[in-house]
Amino acid sequence: GAGVSQTPSNKVTEKGKYVELRCDPISGHTALYWYRQSLGQGPEFLIYFQGTGAADDSGLPNDRFFAVRPEGSVSTLKIQRTERGDSAVYLCASSPDRDSPLHFGNGTRLTVT
Amino acid sequence: KQEVTQIPAALSVPEGENLVLNCSFTDSAIYNLQWFRQDPGKGLTSLLLIQSSQREQTSGRLNASLDKSSGRSTLYIAASQPGDSATYLCAVNAGNNRKLIWGLGTSLAVNP
C-alpha cells in the first residue's frame, strides 16, 4: 500500500522567503509527526498531531515555524522568513497508535541560500 | 533528561559476519524503543519495536534486545549481507508525549 508521501522532495529557497512542506500520511493513521534532521545528526522532534490538533509542539524552534493538519490527514509545515540555519531534511512520520512503529516518508531536503 | 548513545559510530565488516550494534539510554522510564534503518538520501525504515515490558523482538536475521534496568538495547544482525549497509538508529519513546529521543546512529558497511 501507499506509504507516507512528502512533497516536494527538494526545495531551494532564498533567505527570508516563506516555504510550505507537505506530508500525506498513511490512510487511517491518526498520529502524525514532524522531525528535522541535519547532516550527521539524529532526527529532532518538531511537532506531533493526534487527529487535527497539535498534541505537542514543544519542538518547534521558534514562532517562524507553524504546522497544521486541518482535516486530520494531510499536514503542512510552514516556515516564515527562512534562515540558512533552517536548512535540513524535514521528515514526516505517521502511526495508527502509540504502540505501533512510526512510518517515515523520504523527507523534504530544504536548502536556504 | 533522556540521552541516547550509540556505539560504535561506524562499523565495517566482511560479508557473512554476525554483528552487534549497541544503544544505551540514561532514563529507564521508557515506553518503547525502536530500531530504524536509514539509507543515504532516504527516510527511516522501522526495523523492530520493543515495548518496555518485552525483552526482545526478532524479524528475520535481526534480533533486538532490551534491558531497561541497565539502560541498554542491542541489535544483532546475523549473517550480514552487503544490502545491510546503511545507518542504524535507535530511538527511545518516553511515552508521555510520544516524541522519540534518537541516537546519532551506527554507520554500517558490509563488504562483499
Protein described:
The complex is a heterodimer of chains A (113) and B (112). Chain A is mainly beta. Chain A is 0% helix and 49% strand. Chain A has no helices and eleven strands. In chain A, a hairpin with a 7-residue loop joins strand 9 and strand 10 (103-104). The relative contact order of chain A is 0.33. The model of chain A has no long low-confidence stretch (mean pLDDT 93). Chain B contains no helices and eleven strands. Chain B has strands spanning 4-7, 10-14, 19-25, 32-38, 44-51, 56-59, 62-67, 72-77, 86-93, 100-102, 106-111. In chain B, strands 2, 4, 5, 9, 10 and 11 form a six-stranded mixed β-sheet that branches.
Key descriptive features of the protein:
heterodimer; A: 113 residues; mainly beta; four-stranded antiparallel beta sheet; B: 112 residues; six-stranded mixed beta sheet; five-stranded antiparallel beta sheet; 57% strand
Please write out the topology.
The complex is a heterodimer of chains A (113) and B (112).
Chain A: E1 5-7, E2 10-13, E3 19-24, E4 31-37, E5 44-50, E6 53-56, E7 65-68, E8 75-79, E9 88-95, E10 103-104, E11 108-112
Parallel strand pairs in A: 2-11
Antiparallel strand pairs in A: 1-3, 3-8, 4-5, 4-9, 5-6, 7-8, 9-10, 9-11
Chain B: E1 4-7, E2 10-14, E3 19-25, E4 32-38, E5 44-51, E6 56-59, E7 62-67, E8 72-77, E9 86-93, E10 100-102, E11 106-111
Parallel strand pairs in B: 2-11
Antiparallel strand pairs in B: 1-3, 3-8, 4-5, 4-9, 6-7, 7-8, 9-10, 9-11
